[in-house]
Amino acid sequence: MYPAIDFVTRTRRDFLTSTASGLGLAALGNLMTQDGLLAPSTTSAADAVKQAVVNRMPHFAPKAKSCIFLLQAGAPSHLDLYNPKPKLNELDGQPLPKEMLEKVRFAFIKKDSAVLLGSPRKWSKHGQCGMDFSDFLPNLATCADDMLMIRSMHSEQFNHHPGQLLLSCGRASFGLPTIGSWLTYGLGTESQNLPGYVVLTSGRGSSGGASLWSSGFLPSHYAGVLFRNQGEPVLNLTNPDGLPPEIQRRGLDTLKSLNEQRLGEMQDPEIASRIASYELAFRMQSAAPELIDLNGETSATQDAYGVNRTQHPQATGRGNVANAHLSFARNCLLARRMVERGVRFVNIIYEAWDQHSSLEADLRYNSWVVDQPIAALIKDLKQRGLFDSTLVVWGAEFGRTPLGENRNGRDPNTGRDHHPFSFSLWMAGGGTKGGLIYGESDEIGWGVARDPVHMNDFHATLLHLFGLDHLKLTHRNQGRDFRLTDVAGKVVKDWIA
After folding, report:
1. What is the mean pLDDT of the chain?
2. How far apart, in whole angstroms, are the C-alpha atoms of residue 80 and residue 453?
3. CB 377 within 8 A of CB 392
4. Residue 12 pLDDT more than 70?
5. Angle of the 269-292 helix axis to the 324-340 helix axis, nearest 10
6. For residues 28 and 9, what is the distance between their CA atoms, to the nearest angstrom?
7. Which has the closest alpha carbon to 152: 404, 420, 394?
8. I need a surface site. Which of 10, 88, 224, 381 has the fewest CB within 10 A?
């Protein structure tokens, strides 16, 4: 009630107790700073905000500056696109030995009646490297000498969301930063008016949803920003009618002052993230609409990507959602425009590939959706001098089984189940060796026969291309140092040009 009297009449025990509590809080603050939960006390509010967007130095000279990651959610059949297996066709309709299936888990296949399923695709070799492509990918086949084809990927996750988390975050767990978050955390961004990490989607939407572009335990400004490819780029980005820009600026300045005062008191890095996000949103109001306006692109460029192409005459299946053929083409062109403007990581997600049945028709359509725009993207990056500094990745959470799916309620042996034991992924540009076929699966595509590559090996190599040592790119959280590759991963030096 009376602070002065309370102070005079305090006992020595009260004084020591309060002093010890203060020292304890100081020690706790120091520990939390070490764990990355608080910003260092020597960091001013202005420095903390600047740290949120600064362009940082890599550990060593990088090959790549930007990444366009084409996440083909649902998992395409590598056995029908990139990896021909004549022996599989020869054994079509025959069962596998029971000992091969004894300890294997499937998502849907019934082991007792499962048989091998050959591929009806027609295959041919392309480029000086002689890389194999099926007849469903005629445009990508023309880029064979620019691509690094990895045929020996493997994973331990056989369901979509865990597999997508492993591909995107390094572990099949929630609350972890994604590749784009780690790259922007390690390197910052070269763009002042656009996010360092942008997400574009087409099709049905991935099983992993927003967990595939989360910043996890990293500050929130390292999360991916979901863009729309038409209309308002980010919802609620534009000002309401009647709000002049100068009034908005004054309001933001007042809010920034209050947030900086609070940041100085609390040393909470999320407040710095909030300030940086408000300022970025203000700058994006002019930059983002210009970005998605394709009127400045020539008609030849737009035609090459297929942004106005007519629908496939046999459009069908999972991929035929909300004009995905147009949105995916626009997304590929937008990705090129983004890396031109300094965006560090562009994630294009197309969910369409989960062909448990109707493989022939659905895979034809899905391949048609992506084949022309991706080939145009590679050629456009080369023509503009961006290919060597831009890493293009095409990958999914796993592959598809050499066995036909036979679950109840589906036409048997017209599709393939989830298969993590061996599948394909490719990269192009960004300091990788073009025209290289790396690794191999066995004669029916069941397991890896040569040069196995785990997801964490892929992550370690991707970071290496950006000049980052995956062992050193860490963030302390909950008492230990985390990294994208967790406790595994090795750089595959044979991939690096």
Report:
1. 88
2. 21
3. yes
4. no
5. 110
6. 29
7. 420
8. 10
* C-alpha–C-alpha distance, residues 401 and 139, integer Å: 25
Q: Name the 3-class secondary structure at 347.
A: strand
**Alpha carbon distance 237, 233 (integer Å):** 8
Structure tokens at 317: 């299946």
Residue 486 tokens, joined: 């967790």
184: left (phi over 0), alpha (psi -120 to 50) or beta: alpha
How far apart are the two ends of the chain, measured CA to CA in Å? 74
Strand partners, 426: 149, 394
Mean predicted confidence (pLDDT) in 300-311: 97
What is the distance between the alpha carbons of residues 137 and 149, in angstroms, rounded to a whole number? 14
Question: Which tokens belong to 119?
Answer: 């591929």
- In 3D space, the residue among 397, 390, 401, 492 whose CA is nearest the CA of residue 438 turns out to be 492
Position 387 scores a pLDDT of: 98
Nearest-CA neighbor of 337 among 229, 176, 475?
A: 229
- Model pLDDT, residue 16: 46
* Phi/psi of residue 141, nearest 5 degrees: -60, -30
The encoded tokens of residue 154 equal 């493997």
Distance CA 363, CA 76 (A): 8
379-417 burial, b if ≥16 CB within 10 A, otherwise e? bbbbeeebbbbbbbbbbbbbbbbbbbbbeeeeebbbbbb
C-beta atoms surrounding 146 within 10 Å: 23
Residue written as token pair 């600026």: 249
Among the listed residues 143, 163, 177, the one whose alpha carbon sits nearest the alpha carbon of residue 36: 177
E-strand stretches of 308-395: 345-351, 390-395
State what percent of residues in the chain have pLDDT above 70: 87
The CB density around residue 75, as the number of other CB atoms within 10 Å, is 25
Maximum alpha-carbon separation in the chain: 95
Residue 268: count other Cβ atoms within 10 Å of its Cβ.
16
Residue 102 carries which DSSP code?
A: T
DSSP string across 211-270: GGG--TTS-GGGS-EEPPSSSSSSTT-SPPTT--HHHHHHHHHHHHHHHHHHHHHH--HH
Taking residue 474's Cβ as centre, other Cβ atoms within 10 Å add up to 16
CB distance 67 to 345 below 8 Å: yes
Strand partners of residue 391: 67
